[in-house]
Amino acid sequence: MPGRRRDSVAFTVVVTLLVLVGAGVMSLVIAVSGAPGTFALAALLAALPVGPLVGCFMWLDRYEPEPRSLLVGGLLWGAFVATAAALVFQGIGVAGGATDEQTLAFLAPVTEEATKGAFLILLLWWRRHELDGILDGIVYAGMVGIGFAFTENILYLGAAYNGTDGLGPGGTTALTGTFILRCLVSPFAHPLFTAFIGIGVGVAVASRSGAVRLLAPLVGYVLAVITHSMWNSSTLGGTENFFAVYATMMFPAFVGVAAFALYRRRSEKGMMAAALHDASRRGLIPATDIPWLVDLRARRRARVHAKRVGGPVGERAMREYQAAAIELAYLHHRYLRGTAPRDFVERGQDHVGVLSAVRPYVCFPGQVVPTR
């Protein structure tokens, strides 16, 4: 499929070049912002919430794991491209007369959500086949948000310690307060804001309506800007106002989005089962294999069994078979919904070809060991 390969190459080249440019810009910003030792400490502290947050989004992504290269691309985009572009746009706004309050409450949310959301729009444009619905959109948005928060936290932590944030003389006390506020109390903020764009992109992918496909990402962006603006504005009214907004609006919003993501994750099993049973009736996959494909624990048991009876070769065959079946399930689900991509036939043939080639070497628990 030359068209899909060209899109993949174009996406990779554009993202790589922008990441390199963004990394250069942010390295320069950090270099001129203070002593290297200060920002080394800030980077270490800013990295602490990254691992747990990434782990949460990877856990959400277990039913149909996204390509690691794209997930890393989302992190790098957020850390370098989105932050650098947002700084440029905000600098233009400040040069045009925007006050600190206007920048915080309006300019920052508008520019930052636009630069973060651009990664999802590029996915929708060039790598649409990697987006199967709302959960995928949330996962990619979360990765971008985590990367953005990491770099932004370095700047905030460094400024707090150096006393250049305008809030006091700096030092360890200021650094500790900023760390608690940004890295412990609200590490989910940027992933939460951008998750609304991810939901909008996911809705667009799964919709049969042209109007919905056009408007859903825009509505998601507007919601991201509104929640981001509310969050930033809460800091203008002092500590009491911040915690009031945090308790009554932001944390409930986080719980709501998290609950929605968990609901979508739980629904994946039933969706996959229905799609694969229909595919089985069409002769695309044996019905007896389906229980070992739609349940996460059963998948793991199947891989352990394959390794025990077939060694590394058997385990690799099982992984390939499961991966192709999962991709077929999501693709077939979109076909049944009437939202199949334009290259549905070619992609389906690719998946079925892998299944047919690998199936003779696959042995599920309770089945006869295949002969080679």
Automatic annotation (TrEMBL):
It comes from the Bacteria. GO terms for molecular function: metallopeptidase activity. It holds the Pfam family PrsW-protease. The keyword Transport does not apply. GO terms for biological process: proteolysis. Keywords: Hydrolase, Membrane, Metalloprotease, Protease, Transmembrane, Transmembrane helix. The chain crosses the membrane at residues 9-33, 39-60, 72-92, 104-126, 138-159, 179-205, 212-231, 243-263. This is PrsW family intramembrane metalloprotease. It comes from Nocardioides piscis.
